Fold these 2 entries.
Entry 1:
Amino acid sequence: MKEEINSTAKAQIDSIATTCTKIKPLVAINCITYNHEKYLRDALDGFVMQQTNFPFVAIVHDDASTDGTAEIIREYAEKYPDIILPIFETENQYSNLDGSVSRIMNAALNAAGAKYIAYCEGDDYWTDPQKLQKQVDILESNTDFSMICSQYDALFQENGDMVKSIQSGKEEVLSLDNILLNNKIATLTVLIRLDCVNEYRLFAKDCPKLIFADYPIWLFAATKGHIMKLPQSTAVYRVLPQSASHGLSKESRLRWIRSEFKLLDYWIEKQVIPKNVMLCASFNRCSSAARDVIKYNDLTLIKRIRDFYWTNHLYIAWLSFIMMMKCPKLSWLTNLIEKHICIKSPKMYYLFNYVKIQ
């Protein structure tokens, strides 16, 4: 039987616990790295530049990188021993596909004893030196908020284009419905209460394996309190061609779609979401996935989408789906139909972002 946490990581987590007993950090940063040599300095610089009136640490987990990632982490750990706390793996844990990395980081974050958790992977980076201070101040003053996030900019690594976020100037409170129907939370901007993360892990012990780990946590956090989104950009998300959410391969895209449906099914089973909201969310997922499942001829997913439309009497959406299957070149037309009108007998419902079930 495989150990829950390998001995190499456990020894380093014990060391982190000893160090944090002295530091007493209020915030622990969750940073996972693998072959991020080209980008990691930006991420680590974003951590150490933070200006706060409280101690914080960054737990940086290197998953047995084969480039110079580990050497860069060691360099920063030596220079900033009270901030950069590394975990070096001798064997890649992610490839086990058993949640090893998540368990290791959860143990390390709890060992740090921090009240809040922030996230930033090794290929992204923070740009606002006041990010942590602003977010902590808000959560400390608003106990009914479970987490906070912000706007971010996107850097397309292939061509160097930087897409700036549209800043409204107003703080936004995100509800569970908002996040379920249209997730606009970027992981690298999040600060969340550790208690909420631990409670989620108990809640989701039976959750199926998913390709993404963060989105379910945001959903759970929204059931425990308000979520605030700051209007300013605090970070840069680096868009890489083969990242988990932007992979170009057929397999990557289909794995992502299957995970989205698994998550929906899980939340439906838990019965913590109003039925009409789940129906809207299911429609969104079906509509956005249709083109890819037809393109890749995934018969299981095609049946899933077709059955959803038919079972819920979404007849025009179902007919548009059939039309796209027979003539993929008409996908622009079927997408237009789905976004604007769908009939559920005997009433008509107009679709703009989701089905409005009354």
Note: Residues 342-358 have pLDDT under 50 and may be disordered.
Entry 2:
Amino acid sequence: MIKVEYLFPFNTKNGICKDIESFNSLLSAHSDISIQNEIIRYRGSEYNYKVIFDEVPNQEHSVFHVTFNFSRNNAKFRSMLKAVKNVVGVHIKDDIQIIWDGVGFEWSKQLYPKIYQVENYMRKLISKFMLVNLGIGWHVKTVPKTVVNTIKNINGKESHSILYEVDFIQLSHFLFKPYSLKDTSNLPEVMNGMLARELSEHDKKEIQNYIPRNNWDRYFSDILDMESDQLESKWKSLYEIRNKIAHNKSLKNEDLKTGNELCDFLLPIIEDAICSLEKIEVPEEERDSISMNSMATMNEELRPFVDDYQNFSTGIIDTIRNNQEIFESIKDISSPIKSFINAINIKSPFENAELANALSSIENSKDMMINAVGIGKIPLGFDSMKNELFYDAGSRLAESYKGVIDEWPESISFYINRTQNAEDDFEGGRD
């Protein structure tokens, strides 16, 4: 049985609809409507009809609580409801209130399982992409128990999955939100160095690292022959319909039709993307960047830390490449800060202990951040400490390699200069 309920409030000051009889007369003014007892007839069909009259105390208002019931959600029943609203709407315009929309409820029951399936297949795709292709550094990190305890959720339990902490539209950001693998502020310097020579394949790839692209275009579009713009547009349209269902807004017949079409379009593509994962290889040097940007997607408060981390890591890579005679032992720069720490600990553990500790603080903070997002809570104090870590590490670098490294990459000198300027300001103020 389909039930639809309305509240129709009338201002009775002008004498319109002061009782049920006059309300029924108003509806019967429509040539296709007739009412007898608790039956309303419309174009040869009959529907159960009930009206309750309420007067608003001390005000010249009356409210009619009207209920319609019918066995099926068919086009004629919906046409009758529209005719009723048109007649009443002449007098009360936008004041009609739907208090139970059985038509929309039936459509929601039909459509929501399909939306649920599409949404969770997307979670499956992203989970497998992150875990299989990124592996370590995405899902669970080994951190001290004291750190884990600071980022438990309010129930003291760890959440079952990172991706169940993000909503429908945020989910799409994992695939469709553009980001660059390297800090774009360094691109002019990189380009200047390339202008004096013919671009090699390595140069072209290096430039591409500074161009913002999303994960779909970067890893899936060539395999599945589907650009992200079209896919993202469909996802956003489905999100709007999903919200109508989730927030109890009236669902229209066109929403049902469009929602079904969108689900039928998206689901096979997502399934194909899941099947294509075995063909995708994420270069080692890109894994940290994808993982970090995914963290910032779930919590934009982390974006400054992610930007600093990527910028600083780029500077470490350039430092190693520009000073190979000093850092000849560093062969793997896929995780540059960790490689730098290992090299320090092997070569001069006591001499550069403070530098190693400063760099380790950055890496520990990154691990803390990944775990925090994964179980739903950023630790207290993380925001206030994160930027200073890079300035401290920059200062330690300059101090440890004073007289050895004369020129630092711009992405490192930024942190060094900021620290030195602050010290100069302090000395000047003390004088």
Note: Confidence is low (pLDDT under 50) at residues 139-160, 422-431.
